[in-house]
């Protein structure tokens, strides 16, 4: 979880450094990640052939949702700051908690909801000093909200699918699907595929290796051991890491209120995870021991 949080915190920095369209960044990010994963996919070929038609349909939908997330959220960083965009992204657990309740009847404890509330307040503190009233900021905020809803749907579908298939295979198929969606989008929009300087290609590779391999793939793997709500709560650490990196690498200034918000985010995250751990222990104690 900690490795994943640090890794995805670099995502917004790399995106800010790039001048390429968000759809091109997203396409090569997912394409390069898929190429890195393919040599290790052979052991999962049997599981791929065992997938049902419904599974392939859900994998395709998950890929579309992931592509939509990258397109909207990466696009938001062209209009607003790292702190504002990642602050809105931290609302992801709210959408997932609602979706998990509606789709899977998954309930959360009062302690978990308290932790979520503390973390959300902290995230608001982080972005408070950076949210403006300009048209650009508003556009960026709306794009980030759309990207948040899309990734919530992606994770909820993933929670269902990784219960029946290896998370590695799930990640690979979804990444290829999302890359194909970006390819069609760029083709229809007339966006060039190859006319980019070497610096941009280096950023595309960094986006694939750091936040995708060590971030999204790790979070997909964690879906085998934790709910989508719990995994998404760990993504709340991204605004803290991203804001610190933006301060160090991009010169984006942070106020005392924003630093305090970072402390609240991590505190809320700790409360949520502790509540989930207590719940898991109670369930384990309630199960009869096999003798």
From TrEMBL:
SUPFAM superfamilies found in the cross-reference section: Multidrug resistance efflux transporter EmrE
UniProt membrane topology term: Multi-pass membrane protein
Residues annotated as domain EamA: 2-127, 139-272
Subcellular location: Endomembrane system
Similarity comment: family membership: Belongs to the EamA transporter family.
InterPro entries the record matches: EamA_dom, EmrE-like
Bilayer-spanning residue ranges: 26-44, 56-76, 82-104, 111-128, 140-157, 169-189, 201-223, 235-251, 257-275
A Pfam family annotated for this UniProt entry: EamA
Organism listed in the record: Paenibacillus helianthi
Protein name: Multidrug transporter
The keyword Magnesium belongs to this UniProt entry's keyword annotation: no
Keywords assigned by UniProt, alphabetized: Membrane, Transmembrane, Transmembrane helix
Domain of life the protein comes from: Bacteria
């Amino acid at each position: 979880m900690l490795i994943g949080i640090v890794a995805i915190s670099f995502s917004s920095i790399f995106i800010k450094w790039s001048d390429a369209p968000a759809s091109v960044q997203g396409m090569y990010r997912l394409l390069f990640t898929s190429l890195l994963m393919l040599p290790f996919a052979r052991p999962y070929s049997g599981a791929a052939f065992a997938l049902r038609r419904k599974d392939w349909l859900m994998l395709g939908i998950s890929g579309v949702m992931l592509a939509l997330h990258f397109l909207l959220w990466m696009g938001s960083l062209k209009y607003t700051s790292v702190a504002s965009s990642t602050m809105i992204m931290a609302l992801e657990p709210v959408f997932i908690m609602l979706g998990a309740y509606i789709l899977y009847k998954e309930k959360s404890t009062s302690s978990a909801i308290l932790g979520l509330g503390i973390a959300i307040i902290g995230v608001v503190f982080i972005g408070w000093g950076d949210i403006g009233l300009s048209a650009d900021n508003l556009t960026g905020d709306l794009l980030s909200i759309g990207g948040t809803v899309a990734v919530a749907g992606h994770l909820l579908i993933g929670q269902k699918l990784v219960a029946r298939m290896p998370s590695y295979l799930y990640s690979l198929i979804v990444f290829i699907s999302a890359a194909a969606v970006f390819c069609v989008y760029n083709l229809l929009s007339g966006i060039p595929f190859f006319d980019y300087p070497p610096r941009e290609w280096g950023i595309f590779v960094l986006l694939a290796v750091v936040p995708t391999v060590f971030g999204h793939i790790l979070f997909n793997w964690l879906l085998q051991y934790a709910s989508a709500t719990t995994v998404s709560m760990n993504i709340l650490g991204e605004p803290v890491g991203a804001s610190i990196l933006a301060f160090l690498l991009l010169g984006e200034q942070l106020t005392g209120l924003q630093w305090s918000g970072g402390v609240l985010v991590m505190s809320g995250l700790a409360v949520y995870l502790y509540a989930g751990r207590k719940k898991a222990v109670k369930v384990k104690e309630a199960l009869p021991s096999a003798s």
